[in-house]
Amino acid sequence: MSGRIWAIALNTGREAIRHKLLYTLLFFALAMIAFGTVLSTLSYVERERMMQDFAFGSIRLFSVAIAVFVGVGLIHKEVDRRTVYTILSKPLSRAEFLIGKFAGLLLVIWLQVAIMAAFFAGISLLMGAPLGFAHLAALALTAVELALVVALATLFSAFTTPLLASFFSCGIWLAGHLTRDLRDHGAGAESALVRDATAWMHRILPDLESFNLSIEAAHQLPVAASDVWLPALYGAGYVVIVLASATLIFERRDFR
Amino acid sequence: MSAAAEIVRVDDLVKDMRPGFGLRKKRILDGISFRVREREIFGFIGPNGAGKTTTLKVLMGLIRPTSGEASILGHDVGEITFRRQIGFLPEQPYFYDYLTGREILRFYAKLSGVSQDRRERRVSELLSLVGLAEAGDTRLRSYSKGMLQRIGVAQALVHDPTVVFLDEPMSGLDPVGRKEVRDIILRLRAEGKTIFMSTHILSDVEMVCDRVAIIAEGKIRYEGAIDEFLHAGEPQVDLVFANLPSEAAARLEERFDAQLRGHGERVELRIAEKDSREALRVALDAGAELISATPHRVSLESIFLSTVGETGAAEGSR
Fold it and tell me: Which residue in B17, B96, B159 is closest to A83 by CB distance?
């Protein structure tokens, strides 16, 4: 990473950790993970599995919420407060600026996931629940999914208001989790139009279920290396495409 | 003048902008052209909404022109790397207020490619230069408007640029602060830098600028040396008399086409310099007493207002 991108990333990180919403959501995430242990007592069997399933869901949901709600203001705030004027008058391309902002926020989000993961590991050990490669793989793919969500938030933040950007980002995240089911249901439809439309939606929208290994982790199912690196590669490619689109839009913007 | 001496070249620059969603485009810059020469302080003046800030944003690559060309140091303003050689202070700058003065300068120094070994020394130098050495470790949120303006000047200079663009640099400063910024600008010129200064504070322009361009309604109305601008037209002298008889006053007014003010004990006469000796003789012969004789200096403000006013009126009558 170039010194300029790193300077922007570091500063974005410093700004993000000042966001009160981040701490509120982190607190709720940790509370939900802890609540999973209480919830699991309602079950007579597979208490550990239930707790871990609930914890993975909480980690994903709250991390995405942090990524969206902090990420959508990322570029908009810089333009609105006109800090972008002095920054872009320096020998720094708009692409470097955008990548720096993305990287800075992503590092903070990953740090949050690491905190949640450590808390989750602590509770699992206390409960005597198993921890293994599948858990690590599930968390790694959650990190990839979060990179994609931050990239989407950066893209929308590059040209629209935080409200619309959060609406679009949440919409794509939801659609991204449903697209595989839609395709499968659509494949059985009588109408060719429905079959084609659902197939194309699956191709265009990010297939976020490919990053979900929480069932494998909670159920101690075997996870192959390719179950991790293939979705990771897919996610990285998608992030590159989204950031390239964001740069194209941002390059054309006039800062009035 | 050689092409190399032209640091900033703007040719036929046009910028159309839509004032709001769905509204018709408005022409903000209407084919402006001007030059900024090496080692000069160039004043870019005009009333509010004339197009000063838009021009600066085009030069900084923050907005793209609709048509026309703009270059700095021979590079198109859309290029990136040459920006190591330029510094920019926007109007009413805003900075990350959770950083201290020292941290924000460090941040801009990193962005500008100032090497790590030079960075700390340069940051300390600049904090001293803008009078913020003691406030360097205070967060910007505690800074006054004037202090923020100074930190803005410092960030524009942190990488020791060749050309400095300042948008309303005296804005928000008290008289002492304004003098300090003026001194910094003069010092920069003495160091061989070129300064482009956009402002509407005409007294500052008069004090520091070598050349000016006046912009009004998106068009350049005048471009040239400030001395030529201030001394355009025939030189005049203000003669002040005591006890000038009214007949003599009327004779002077008629014969020399003089402008007369006051009556009785104190009469002020504005007259062409070439006629002053003869007018003086006539007045003294009539028994008047000379109180003072001073060359008349036209203020930049009056010329500015007449330049902007004339063109505005001419356009209004079209």
Answer: B96
